[in-house]
Amino acid sequence: MDKVTAKLTVFFDDPFWVGVFESRDGEVLKVAKVTFGSEPKDGEIYDFLLKNYNRLQFSQPITDEKVPEKRINPKRMQRDIHRQMAAKSIGTKAQQALKEEQENKKITRKAFNRKKTEAEKQQ
Fold this sequence. Notes:
Layout: E1 4-13, E2 16-25, E3 28-37, H1 42-52, E4 62-63, H2 74-87, H3 92-122
Antiparallel strand pairs: 1-2, 2-3, 3-4
């Protein structure tokens, strides 16, 4: 049975604060991006998760190589979390997924606009 994990990274992307949600189900990775505006507090992020998580539009699933899972000491995990918070960067897989989703939307939008203009010319 595969374990589902979720990860939220909040960072400042001038001029807004942005959150990137990563959802991993076994070998499948899905990503969603949310713009918060001003710097969100922990309570505001928690409220956002409770109220809006079901409405997030995740990208198309991307297959990801499975990393062998091993038990991590809680103190080591805490140190890793502090290192990740200090780094303040988006994971490369998440960046690739968001970029791919953006390209797919752009292609479908161009195709739709092309069909629309052709229909208007015919009329």
